[in-house]
Amino acid sequence: MALLEVNGLVKHFVAQRSLLGRALAHVKAVDDVSFALEAGKTLALVGESGCGKSTVSRLVLRLIEPDAGTVRFDGRDLLALEAGTLRAFRREAQIIFQDPYASLNPRMTVGQILTEPLALHDLVPPARRVERVAELLRLVGLEPRLARRYPHEFSGGQRQRIAIARALAVEPKLIICDEPVSALDVSIRSQILNLLRELQDRLGLAYIFVSHDLAVVKHIADHVAVMNLGQIVETAEADALFAAPRHPYSRALLSAIPQPQPKAKRTTVLLEGEIPSALDPPSGCRFHTRCPFVIERCRSEAPALLADRTGHATACHRTAELPSADAILPTAGGFSPALAKLVAAFSRKTEGGSPAGVVKQGTTSTTM
Amino acid sequence: MSASPLIEIKDLRIRFHGDDGRITHAVDGVDLSVANGATLGLVGESGCGKSVTSLAIMGLLPKQSAEISGAIRFDGFDLLTTPDQTLRDLRGNRLAMIFQEPMTSLNPSFTIGDQIIETILRHRGGSRRSARDRAIELLRRVHIPSPERRIDDYPHKLSGGMRQRVMIAMALACDPRLLIADEPTTALDVTLQAQILELMRELKAASGAAIILITHDLGVVAEVCDEVAVMYAGEIVERAPVDELFSAPQHPYTVGLLGSIPRLDHRAEQLATIEGMVPNMAQPPAGCRFAARCPFVLDACTKVSPPLVEVGVGHLSRCIRAPLELLVS
Question: Can you tell me the ipTM of this complex?
Answer without folding.
Answer: 0.86
